[in-house]
Amino acid sequence: MVFDFDTPTNRLNTDSIRWDSFNSKAVLPLWVADMDFKSPPCVIEALSNRVKEGIYGYTHSPHQMNTMIADYLEEQYQWQVDPDWIVILPSVVSGLYTAVQQLTKADEQVLIPNPIYHHLRLACSSAKRSFQEMQLQLKDDRWVLPSNELKNLNTNRAKLALFCNPQNPGSTVFTKEELKEFGDFCIQNNLWICSDEIHAGLVLDENKKHIPLASISKEISNKTITLMSLNKTFNFPGIGLAWAVAENPVLRNAIQVGLHETIAPPSLLAYTATMAAIKDGEPWRLELIQYLRDNRDLIRSKIASIDGLSIGNMEGSYLAWIDCSKLDHQNPHQLFLDAGLATSPGQQFGQNQFVRLNFGTQKARLIQALNIIESSAANLN
After folding, report:
1. pLDDT at residue 176 in the model
2. Residue 295: left (phi > 0), alpha (psi -120 to 50), or beta?
3. Which residues contact 42 (CB under 8 A, 6 or more apart)?
4. Which of 240, 360, 251, 352 is nearest to 299 (CA)?
5. What domains appear along the chain, each with residue ranges and CATH number?
6. Packed helices 41-52 and 268-280: angle between N→C axes, nearest 10 degrees
7. What is the residue-wise DSSP string for 276-289?
8. pLDDT tens per residue, range 126-176
9. Is residue 101 very low, low, confident or very high in pLDDT (cuts 50, 70, 90)?
10. Burial class, 265, CB count within 10 angstroms (exposed 0-12 / middle 13-18 / buried 19+)
11. b or e along 297-327 (b: 16 or more beta carbons within 10 Å of the residue's beta carbon)?
12. Cα separation of 161 and 193, whole Å?
């Protein structure tokens, strides 16, 4: 490999949320979804050059930014997007909150998957919107939304459906048929859609590719705001920049409410990092994917050998959604934490008997984490 993902990085004394939240001498923190790898050399070099300029004044989005993103979407996902459909945002999370606030009224309801990244739920509670959960089910080792679950939903008050692809925490990369079924359901029930696709660049399954929900049909596109970012794929979430794609001008106007007012724009370094990743980051991304695949395979093998634990297919992202429901323990997150491993508690995503493990780390650290899980489970017997 040209790029080094194996050499341990030291994130202590860097104000890292993940590494500073626990005693680093006692706990290995594999929870918050950022990776322990240095960003691509092209990003580091571009940032260094920008810093050396020495002037950091107020900055607008570069004139070529939207065109670069549109070209990137066509190259990566064969999705043709007009640059005018793109709205630059500081983060995907801010887009989620804005979508819920602007696309629903106080007496209307939001549909959200379960399990799901917690900010989709928090976006609803923050806006004081009620929500109804769409229960995902494990089918053929994939977390999917069954047809009968959609048919059983009460959509009388629903106005907006939140979606996540690749799915977080379950890591499903949805097929074209699955996306079409969900999109058509939303059209039939006159629902807006906000699709969180931040992990689009992290598809691990060699037989799958990321398909933007809005690319399925013109009708679905007119109902959809797609939220994307390179923060996760190229590991610069602390710098941050995201974008929304909305063909429908009503949605495009809605997602811009508050920008440059209560919602700050991205920093000048965020533009620099994102443009460098788009222009020169692909070789690094491809090697990252292979490294994460190897880590995923290591997890599969180890979890399969531990009584009481199971895991579905990990088709995308660097997050392992581990089912601990057959362990003789009411709080698996605490069990592993007491043994020296911090995971994300399943309760955060709507499923108490699960934990989410971040495997975007060096193989040696992952092996250490899996050994902790194995010994913790064995000590219960």
Report:
1. 98
2. alpha
3. 276, 277, 279, 280, 281, 284
4. 360
5. 17-40+282-379 (3.90.1150.10), 65-279 (3.40.640.10)
6. 140
7. HHHHH-HHHHHHHH
8. 999 999 999 999 999 999 999 888 989 999 999 999 999 999 999 999 999
9. very high
10. middle
11. eebeebbeebebbebbbbbbbbbbbbbbeeb
12. 5
Peptide bond into 332 cis (omega under 30): no
Q: Which two tokens stand for residue 82?
A: 């007009």
φ, ψ for residue 112 (rounded to 5)? -135, 150
Q: Which residues pair with 89 in a beta bridge?
A: 242
Q: Which two tokens stand for residue 71?
A: 């070209």
Look at residue 12 and tell me whether its pLDDT is greater than 90.
yes
Can you give the length of the chain in residues? 381
Helix or strand or coil: residue 320? Answer: strand
Q: Are 343 and 380 within 8 A, CB to CB?
A: no
Handedness of CA 160, 164, 170, 172 (dihedral sign): positive
Give the 3-state secondary structure of residue 31: coil
Provide the 10 A C-beta neighbour count for residue 149.
Answer: 15
Token couple for 252: 């495009």
Looking up tokens 């913790």 gives 376
The rounded distance, in Å, linking the Cα atoms of 36 and 24 is 14
Fill in the amino acid letter for 242.
Answer: A
Please provide the average confidence, as pLDDT, over all residues in the chain.
97
User: Which tens digit of pLDDT belongs to each residue from 268-292?
Assistant: 999 999 999 999 999 999 999 999 9
- At 192, phi and psi to the nearest 5? -70, 155
Chain-centre distance for alpha carbon 79:
20
Q: Is the pLDDT of residue 381 over 80?
A: no
Closest by Cα among 165, 161, 182, 186 to 174: 165
Residue recorded with tokens 């995902």? 136
